[in-house]
């Protein structure tokens, strides 16, 4: 049977300790940073994905050991494997992966960990379930920065399928969030609505909210609009 220990050993073979200091700065794991205390081995995402290919059949009991590790790289590996298990699994396996994920959101505790997993597990699992909006709203109302980001990023699955309703609901709930990482996520999803679903939906949202939404969110949301449109919404923000 494949084990978490074997996966950890494989990661450590490809780790580059010389990358650790720069990675700690990038992910703000220094005192006062949003991921204060997170620890890194120095593995790149592509290398981690390569290692993951050897461990796609890890049982959840072993993945539990990875996702609860103090090492960021171990947790990332666990999430990449979980996403693949969700994609490959039957209905029962997908329920098990989703339940496991939701039981471990405290360990999905950096923006890259959220972004590599939420839209591929939470989004598709909830897609046709009646509890979808309630779960997303609960996550969006969480005291956890990462659960709030999970809520927003889960809707990327729907945006990519041409639907914006759930993303708009979550974006409105998170619109005045104080954290930079949530403001960026909301603006990113709004921009994607304009690009992938319907620019009219984005413009209607901006017409209603541009004057009082965080500037970071606004700048992300309008990034791909024509210059005159960007200038218009930025001016609305500055005069209110």
Short synopsis of the structure:
The chain has 240 residues and is an all-alpha fold. It is 67% helix and 0% strand.
Question: Biggest sheet: strands, sense, closure?
Answer: none
Number of strands: 0
* Bulk shape: globular
Number of helices: 16
Unreliable runs: none
Let me know the average pLDDT: 97
The string of secondary-structure elements, in order, is HHHHHHHHHHHHHHHH
What is the SS-derived class? mainly alpha
Portion in helices: 55-70%
Instruction: Supply Rg.
Output: 19 Å
Tell me what portion of residues adopts beta-strand conformation: under 5%
Separation of the first and last Cα atoms: 62 Å
Structural commentary:
With 240 residues, this protein is mostly helical. Helix content is 67%, strand content 0%. Helix 8 (118-126) crosses helix 10. It is globular, with a radius of gyration of 19 Å. The mean pLDDT is 97.
Write the layout of secondary structure elements.
Layout lengths: L3 H11 L5 H7 L18 H8 L7 H8 L4 H17 L2 H13 L7 H5 L2 H9 L5 H9 L4 H10 L1 H5 L4 H10 L5 H18 L1 H11 L5 H7 L5 H13 L1
List keywords for this structure.
single chain; 240 residues; mainly alpha; 67% helix
């Amino acid at each position: 049977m494949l084990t978490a220990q074997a996966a950890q050993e494989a990661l450590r073979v490809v780790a580059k300790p010389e990358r650790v200091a720069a990675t700690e700065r990038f992910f703000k794991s220094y005192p006062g940073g949003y991921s204060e205390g997170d620890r890194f081995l120095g593995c790149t995402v592509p290398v981690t994905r390569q290692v993951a290919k050897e461990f796609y059949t890890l049982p959840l009991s072993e993945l539990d050991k990875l996702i609860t590790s103090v090492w960021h790289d171990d947790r990332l590996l666990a999430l990449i494997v979980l996403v693949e298990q969700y994609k490959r699994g039957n209905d029962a396996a997908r329920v098990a992966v989703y339940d496991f994920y939701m039981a471990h959101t405290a360990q999905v505790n950096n923006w890259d960990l959220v972004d590599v997993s939420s839209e591929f597990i939470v989004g598709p699992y909830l897609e046709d379930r009646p509890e979808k909006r309630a779960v997303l709203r609960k996550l969006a109302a969480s005291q956890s920065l990462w659960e709030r980001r999970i809520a927003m990023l889960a809707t990327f699955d729907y945006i990519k399928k041409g639907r914006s309703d759930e993303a708009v609901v979550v974006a409105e709930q998170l619109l005045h969030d104080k954290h930079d990482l949530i403001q960026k996520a909301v603006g990113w999803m709004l921009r994607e609505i304009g690009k992938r679903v319907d620019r009219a939906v984005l413009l209607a949202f901006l017409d209603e909210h541009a004057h009082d939404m965080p500037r970071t969110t606004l700048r992300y949301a309008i990034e791909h609009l024509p210059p005159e449109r960007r200038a218009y919404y930025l001016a609305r923000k500055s005069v209110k």
